[in-house]
């Protein structure tokens, strides 16, 4: 196994921006609390597809998809990743608007550890001793949260598994980030559009007629907020080792946890605080090790 390569700085910045945006998303979806969760997901799919596919057609022409799926296995792998991310969206939005923001943050605390495991076991990525210590401390925090949560955290585990597998598929699929998202979205577009139209004609929807201009605008702009972090994540995950991306993902659940506790006043007792502290100690160890390694200099030896 080869050691972890030099980190791509642009990939790191893009990953960080994506995770910050994801971390703030509960505030946005809470504004749409009056809209059924399924309707929000369907609108996310439709508007993000129109945005991404429209941009690709403008920049690359109508045949952009042929180049994207020319390699073997790309088409069916993107169909699978699209299904996983749609499931993840639906569960997440329902959980946020049902008052489970803290549990969704637990899911995204678990997810980076799952990415580290996938990176090491399946992609032969290698961690040094300090990074293993960081992972072990963070894992202890996640285990503490899981076993002291008060009930089986099925929402958290389902979110972690679905997004972890999504990241793995996008890591190993040889397709650029934006075309890949375009193909994923295209697979979901027609079923989502058909269900939206059925809902509107059978009294289950309220777009334009009932929800009001403000909510309609939020639903449409939700497509932009859906596409941007996914494009950034897919860009970063192909340029940064999956184990590093996995640990960076703690940015999003930390913000979600703070929003759940400080904004939505959800329960955050002593047991949850202990788990949170363990996770942040692990992150601190990983960050200090990364800074130290980046400052090392190789001094050439004269012949």
UniProtKB/TrEMBL annotation:
It holds the Pfam family EamA. The chain crosses the membrane at residues 12-29, 41-58, 74-94, 106-123, 130-146, 152-169, 181-199, 211-235, 247-267, 273-292. The keyword Electron transport does not apply. The keyword Iron does not apply. Keywords: Cell membrane, Membrane, Transmembrane, Transmembrane helix, Transport. Its main location: membrane. InterPro entries: EamA_dom, EmrE-like, RarD. It is found in: Cell membrane. Residues 11-146, 155-286 form the EamA domain. It comes from the Bacteria. One of its GO terms (cellular component) is plasma membrane. It is a multi-pass membrane protein. NCBIfam families: rarD. Belongs to the EamA transporter family. This is Chloramphenicol-sensitive protein RarD. It comes from Luteimonas cucumeris.
